[in-house]
């Protein structure tokens, strides 16, 4: 796994370094990695058997999810994607029937409309899994994201399994710096398979 420069590396430095490194990966290499990640994910029983998938909508050089969303919907599985409220810095997931329902939101990320069905009660999320974005993950499932804190606030009360999506270049061999509000993922899906972060 790639080094994060040690536990003394602060989050802002890590964020800048991994953003730069990600931009430098050729598009063809990213695509090949993402195909392998999605293949590993689809073979993972916790994911493949989940009736509801909560997932981010990828943009730029993120691990791609848009083709995955289309595939899940074609299989008749339920998919929900996030909508953020910058006023109170909250995030809710809304169920969609197609990517065509999405439009750029306040942060230029594709989002569902405000009237799309919102999943706000624990019972509505029963049996679901949540795919979590990040710039870098460590072996314990901790991550450095984009700094908004939206996912950590949502995941603090999320009852299901949390799966980070990461190319091998996004894995740190050193523990990442963490804050009290950080919520680790339970599993990480990479080109080589899905591995558990529990108990690490």
Automatic annotation (TrEMBL):
- What's the superkingdom here? Bacteria
EC number(s) on file: 6.3.3.2
User: Which is an annotated GO molecular function term of this record?
Assistant: ATP binding
Residues annotated as binding ATP are 11-15, 143-151
Please tell me where substrate binds in this chain.
57, 62
Q: Which SUPFAM superfamilies match?
A: NagB/RpiA/CoA transferase-like
Q: Which GO terms describe its biological process?
A: folic acid-containing compound biosynthetic process; tetrahydrofolate interconversion
What family does the Swiss-Prot or TrEMBL record give for this protein?
A: Belongs to the 5-formyltetrahydrofolate cyclo-ligase family.
Q: What is this protein called?
A: 5-formyltetrahydrofolate cyclo-ligase
Q: Which organism is it from?
A: Candidatus Olsenella pullistercoris
């Amino acid at each position: 796994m790639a080094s994060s420069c040690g536990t003394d590396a602060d989050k802002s430095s890590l964020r800048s370094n991994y953003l730069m490194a990600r931009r430098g990966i050729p598009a063809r290499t990213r695509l090949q990695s993402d195909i392998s990640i999605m293949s590993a994910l689809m073979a993972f029983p916790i994911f493949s058997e989940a009736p509801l998938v909560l997932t981010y909508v990828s943009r730029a050089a993120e691990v791609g999810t848009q083709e995955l969303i289309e595939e899940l919907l074609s299989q008749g599985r339920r998919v929900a994607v996030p909508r953020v409220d910058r006023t109170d810095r909250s995030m809710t997931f809304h169920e969609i029937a197609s990517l065509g329902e999405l439009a750029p939101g306040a942060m230029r990320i594709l989002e569902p409309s405000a009237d799309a069905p919102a999943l706000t009660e624990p019972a509505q999320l029963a049996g679901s899994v949540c795919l979590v974005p990040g710039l870098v993950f460590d072996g314990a499932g901790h991550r450095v994201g984009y700094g908004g804190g939206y996912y950590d606030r949502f995941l603090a009360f999320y009852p299901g399994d949390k799966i980070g999506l990461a190319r091998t270049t996004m894995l740190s061999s050193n523990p990442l710096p963490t804050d009290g509000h950080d919520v680790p993922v339970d599993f990480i899906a990479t080109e080589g398979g899905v591995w558990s972060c529990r108990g690490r």
